[in-house]
């Protein structure tokens, strides 16, 4: 049985928007100085544990446009080669970047996929999609990469009026850059 693991880069004030500097905000790229070899290795290890990369439309459009054209390095090679599942009501197939559209009930499709044998499902960002998955109790692990900076505005990881969840801290890891990776699991 697969697990759904959500991994998100976040500022100390809870912002997840444009950590890679893909042009969404003026403050974009805030996570780039912290993406050291150590961070890349940790990210690669988690991608290697997954058969699928799941994301929403916005994350897909931003990452495929940028990362899909970059060659080199084990992390990007893995990301570019693995199958992607994209949750969207507005996109149409065919999709680029080794991606397939989930056009029906996303929660139902992910629940079915989780029951199949295989490696995990990794998801980055996608705050709206996260809310849908939380509503249906589908998230098995939250990996929150807390960056030591405050930028004052932008999309938040957990939205006002969103779904609640009781979590337990499963592990924590402090990187040499000052980023703290907090891994939480739902409390049954």
Write the layout of secondary structure elements.
Elements: E1 4-11, H1 37-48, E2 50-56, H2 57-66, H3 74-81, E3 84-87, E4 99-102, H4 106-115, E5 120-124, H5 127-135, E6 141-147, E7 167-174, E8 180-186
Parallel strand pairs: 1-5, 1-6, 2-3, 2-5, 3-4
Antiparallel strand pairs: 6-8, 7-8
Helix pairs in contact: 1-3
Structural notes for this entry:
The protein has 188 residues and is an alpha/beta fold. It has a single domain, classed as 3-Layer(aba) Sandwich (Dihydrofolate Reductase, subunit A). It is built from five helices and eight strands. The chain has an eight-stranded mixed sheet with strand order 4-3-2-5-1-6-8-7. Helix 1 runs parallel beside helix 3. The longest helix is centred in the first third of the chain and has 12 residues. The chain is globular, with a radius of gyration of 16 Å. It starts with a strand and ends with a strand. 26% of the residues are buried. This is Dihydrofolate reductase family protein. It comes from Mesorhizobium humile. InterPro entries: DHFR-like_dom_sf (IPR024072), RibDG_C (IPR002734), Riboflavin_Biosynth_HTPR (IPR050765).
């Amino acid at each position: 049985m697969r697990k759904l693991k959500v991994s998100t880069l976040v500022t100390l004030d809870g912002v997840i928007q444009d950590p890679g500097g893909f042009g969404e905000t003026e403050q974009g790229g805030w996570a780039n100085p912290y993406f050291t070899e150590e961070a890349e290795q940790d990210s690669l290890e988690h991608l290697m544990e997954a058969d699928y990369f799941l994301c929403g439309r916005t994350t897909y459009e931003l990452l495929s446009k940028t990362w899909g054209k970059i060659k080199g390095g084990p992390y990007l090679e893995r990301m570019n080669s693995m199958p992607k599942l994209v949750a969207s009501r507005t996109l149409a197939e065919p999709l680029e970047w080794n991606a397939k559209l989930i056009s029906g009930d996303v929660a139902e499709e992910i629940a079915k996929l989780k029951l199949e044998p295989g490696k995990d499902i990794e998801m980055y960002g996608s705050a709206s999609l996260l809310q849908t998955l939380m509503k249906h109790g589908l998230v098995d692990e939250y990996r929150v990469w807390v960056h030591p900076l405050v930028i004052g505005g932008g999309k938040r990881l957990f939205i006002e009026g969103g779904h609640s969840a009781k979590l337990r801290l499963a592990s924590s890891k402090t990187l040499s850059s000052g980023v703290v990776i907090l891994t939480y699991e739902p409390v049954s």
